[in-house]
Design goal:
Layout lengths: L1 H17 L1 H13 L6 H14 L1 H6 L6 H20 L2 H19 L2 H6 L1 H6 L8 H25 L5 E3 L2 E3 L4 E3 L7 H18 L3 H33 L6 H28 L3 H15 L4
Antiparallel strand pairs: 1-2, 2-3
């Protein structure tokens, strides 16, 4: 046990030394970019999940794998490429590979299996590359604009849409990047991963819960844009600005999370007999004597 602790301490010190600049830039972006402020929660949550499995880790057989060293070397190569190309995403995501590869190399595959979920959480703390972020954000802006236009037109409110701009009789609404819904999408997917882990044991159910977060977040943001249009028409342009605009974002995110919880409960009540049957067959094959 002491050897394990010393190995972990040495590895931790080495990673902190090499990635000190990367970690510093990550923390700075978490603090300044609302799209990734949830990053502060990821590492403590991953550590908690690892601590929760401490007894299983202590009982797991230690069989270091050379494949872990290969993963570490590849990750360090990605880090070097990121430094040379001044690409923050590569330097940051390489940290996840170094941690995962180190677990496999120092402790072995049994420990790596027990730590799959904590390790899978870590990529959620890494901000997306700007190119990928924009490729997601802009279509979401257009989608929210279209839904807002449709809702307003259905209510017989005069509206003209040009791209992500909604022209109303008394004001002009611009569905900016901040209103695209990508912030709530990223946050809700993160919450869905955590919710699925703590409420479900079936892999299929966990995947369905996480996938359901995407349409829920998109629908909630589209409803927010439509609601902003209604409020602007009925109460004036100030209803789309300042406190009311920000508060509506929190309200819709709370509604989206509530919807996610409801979907999670519905999925939890689905028996999925085919999955149960498949698991039962697999267990019978393992228990049957060899011929």
């Amino acid at each position: 046990m002491i050897g394990h602790v010393l190995s972990a301490a040495v590895v931790f010190a080495g990673v902190m030394w090499l990635y000190s600049g990367v970690l510093s830039s990550l923390v700075t972006q978490w603090a300044s970019d609302d799209n990734y402020s949830h990053g502060f929660l990821i590492v403590p949550l991953a550590l908690y999940c690892a601590w929760e499995r401490r007894h299983l880790l202590a009982a797991a057989e230690r069989r270091p794998r050379i494949s872990g060293l290969v993963i570490v070397l590849i990750s360090l190569l990605v880090y070097a490429i990121g430094v040379l190309a001044a690409e923050l995403f590569l330097t940051r995501i390489s940290l996840v590979g170094v941690v995962a590869g180190t677990v496999l190399f120092v402790w072995g595959s049994a420990h790596a299996r027990e730590l799959v979920f904590p390790l899978a959480l870590l990529p959620l703390m890494v901000p997306l590359p700007a190119l990928v972020f924009n490729q997601i954000a802009f279509p979401l802006q257009l989608l929210a604009s279209r839904v807002g236009e449709t809702a307003l037109a259905t209510a017989h409110i005069p509206v003209l849409r040009e791209g992500n701009i909604l022209e109303l009789p008394n004001t002009t609404l611009a569905v900016a990047e901040a209103c695209s819904g990508i912030r709530s999408l990223i946050s809700l997917v993160t919450l869905a991963v955590v919710l699925a882990y703590f409420t479900e044991r079936r892999a299929v159910a966990r995947i369905l819960i996480v996938l359901s977060a995407v349409p829920i977040a998109i629908l909630a943001n589209a409803a927010r844009v439509a609601g902003t249009g209604f409020a602007s028409h009925w109460f004036g342009p100030k209803a789309a600005e300042g406190f009311f605009h920000g508060f509506s974002g929190w309200i819709m995110f709370a509604v989206a999370f509530a919807g996610l919880v409801v979907v999670g409960r519905v999925i939890g009540r689905i028996s999925m007999p085919w999955a149960v049957r498949w698991r039962r067959v697999a267990e019978e094959d393992q228990c049957s004597p060899a011929h």
